[in-house]
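Q: Here's a chain of 333 amino acids. Please give me its 3D structure as tokens.
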Amino acid sequence: MKTVERKYNQLLDKIGYSLNQGRKKINQVVNKEMLFSKWEIGQHIVEYEQDGNEKAEYGSALLNKLSKDLKIRYGKGFSRRSVLDMRRFYIFYPKRQTVSAFLSWSHYVELIGIKNNLEREFYKIKCLQEAWSVREFKRAKNSSLFERIAISKTKEEIFALGEEGQVIENANDIMRDSYTLEFLGVPENYEISEKELEQKIIDNLQLFLLELGKGFSFVGRQYRITLNNTHYRIDLVFYHRFLRCFVLIDLKTKKADHSDIGQMSMYIGYFKKEEMTEGENPPIGIILSKEKDEILVEYTINGLNKNLFVSEYQLYLPDKKELEDRLNRILNE
């Protein structure tokens, strides 16, 4: 009887798998055709404008009339904003082959709202590479991910972000000057302890992994190591599957000082000696602190370890204008 029941359950599993695969393929086909139909509608509008030498900016008479008449003929889905989005969709992606069926219309609505070409293409690549949902994409955009990554790079590397996305080849490629942890929901002016900060990160681990970037997997918290009968605990330990190395994170609710850097150097040395296996790369250590003294960090590290970094975290969304200004200064150098 157990054998019969097991085989029957296997049958159910196979049928379920086939159904899910079929539904997935149907959804992909529907999404692809919907995208291309919206692209073609945008094409028709732009070609009509060019023929009549009219610019249909937001609120123009043409878009108003189109929206009204399309709703009468074909029902919902043709608000003035929707018609404008279809027009902009074609303008930003005039070559149909550059439209990816792996992204939804909602993804493209978010993309066409980005004016900067580099930033728009960066997010498009990230959405494809990391299979972001629309919610994840909006969160990354609202937290100024592009600017936060770009300001730590050279002008040439910034342009490469818009063409290739974020290429991960070494420790510097996964690092940022700052990390935004607004998803922790810490009230303003609240003095959070390191223990509370760590617990909130664990409670929101999926979003923290999203902020860290692609390739991170969680290993453990309060990871204990022992040296000469003295126990030490590393706040958070991850493994990066592309770089093939451990990533050690220590949390500081104050400004990181030289003793914190020295301690992280010890952690890196321990993992390099005791935890690394053949084929793996040396561990990376990140001190994530509320504040960062650039000069102190520079002098303290001073070639100590190329895989040791100090970064700041913010508990609230960053000032996008300030980041844009810093990025423009780099691009105009």
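Q: Can you summarize the key feature?
A: The chain has two domains: 2-101, 172-318.
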